Amino acid sequence: MGLLSKKDAALIKDPLLDNNPITIQVLGICSALAITAELKASIVMSISVLFVLGVGNVVISLMRNIIPSKIRIIVQLIVVATLVIIVDLVLKAFAYELSKTLSVFVGLIITNCIIMGRFEAFALGNGPWRSFLDGIGNAVGYGIILIAVGFFRELLGSGTLLGFKVLGDPIEKTGLYAIGYENNGFMLLSPMALIVVGIIIWVQRSKNKSLIEEA
Amino acid sequence: MEHIELFFKSIFIDNMVFATFLGMCSYLAVSKKVSTAVGLGAAVIFVLAVTVPLNWLLDQYILKDGALAWLGEEYASYDLSFLSFIMFIATIATMVQLVEIIVEKFSPSLYNSLGIFLPLIAVNCAILGGSLFMQSREIPSLGLAFTYGIGSGIGWFLAILAIAAIREKIRYSSVPPALRGLGITFIITGLMAIGFMSFGGMLTGGDEKKEEKPAVEAKVKEVKVKEEKAKEIVAENTNINE
Question: Cα distance from A112 to chain B (closest Cα, Å)?
């Protein structure tokens, strides 16, 4: 990779697994759980966060020397809110149905802790290019978990992926349903999102023992 | 009556944490000790009780479609609702600053134990979520907005109190090492959310009855009207025959 030095590459790679924003840093859980009943909603949410975090990190990083530190939270909130309004209006214009399913959770990107966390921890102290990479890395790490949770919940809950019936038709009893398989409607209810994330954390920490918390 | 209904609904059925997953970040981070959990919970109740009515006023008199009509007729067609995110978050950030100053002044020990998490209330999804749900559910009056704010605050408080108590106890159990800390907290919260789902039947049963009654009454009326019409027609026919 000629474009990225080793240090820069680490900025993107680290948040994907070993420093994942959701499972390790515990940031941005709210949206991760609430909108993951469908894969499509999770993908759109990940892309929105990718846009907001990538652009926001660059903007904050460019302004980092002129923001008075006492009012930096307000400045950060205004930057995020502006970007989120753009995302919200674009979604309403081009994917109205989907913006209805996401309802208030698009607005809640503003208070997504990942975004404020990265602004505070990284963009305020680093240049625009590195901040951009950091933003992309963290947003993708967030997206991976979101999409994984959405994938399992939609597959096990309604037997579809992105609306396609991959397991056969439950009414006409084709595919897996022919041998007596049933959808687990419980996966679509909100508590299962928590449990799925819990299991993902479990799997990840069993593989990488250094992440285990001390009791 | 509708105040009581909304109050219980916002505490149990639409519980911020268990039904909509709002404010999970601070819920997970601050729930290691009961004492800090209580402090943060109280702060959330207070901030929600103040910001939801305040944002209701903003929404009603500035942001809504046609809300500026009180300024004069030429403003009646303005729709500023796309600005609601930025207005709500500005109100919230200001209020949180205020709470921070008050807590620092009156309870330095609480201020020290809450530490970094007080400013984080500004970015607590529960607070902004409260205002956004208030807007999207079209809560009709200022009083109800206040009830909704308090109710959802108490719901959040209950949730963080419960999980903090469980986490204090769980320290003495042997959890599988890879699940320790975060993982087990997620799973416990999931189980608690399943428990809270059982409150779902509490109010909906009442709602259905309410809806049924007018429907039945309307049908009875319809039948009566039809009978009267039939009688009239019969009377007319007899008249003609005569």
Answer: 7
Domain boundary assignment for chain A: 19-151
3-class state of residue A155 by DSSP: helix
- A147's CB contacts (< 8 A; 6+ apart) are A39, A42, A43, A46
Strands (DSSP E) contained in A89-132 are none
Query: In terms of C-beta density within 10 A (0-12 exposed, 13-18 middle, 19 or more buried), how is residue A130 classed?
Result: middle
Pull the structure tokens for residue A118: 């990265």
Q: What single-letter amino acid sits at A101?
A: T
Q: What is the pLDDT of residues A32-87, one digit of tens each?
A: 777 777 788 888 888 888 898 889 889 888 888 888 877 777 788 888 888 988 88
Which of A73, A30, A68, A24 is closest to A49 using CA atoms? A30
Report CA torsion sign: B62, A78, B40, A70.
Answer: negative
- Residues A198, B136: C-beta atoms closer than 8 Å: no
| Three-state secondary structure call for residue B83 | helix
ipTM: 0.79
Q: Across the interface, which of A89, A110, A206 has its CB nearest the CB of B82?
A: A89
Instruction: Please indicate whether, in this complex, the C-beta atoms of A192 and B190 are within 8 angstroms of each other.
Output: yes
Note whether A67 contacts B: Cβ–Cβ < 8 A: no
Distance from A13 to chain B by nearest Cα, in Å?
A: 22
Amino acid at site B59 = D
Kindly determine whether residue B89 and residue A34, on different chains, have CB atoms separated by under 8 Å.
Answer: no
* Cα dist from A176 to A95, A98, A170, A181, B240, whole Å: 32, 29, 9, 6, 72
Contact A213 B182 (CB under 8 A): yes
Is B80:B63 a contact under the CB 8 Å cutoff? yes
Contact (CB<8Å) A215/B189: no
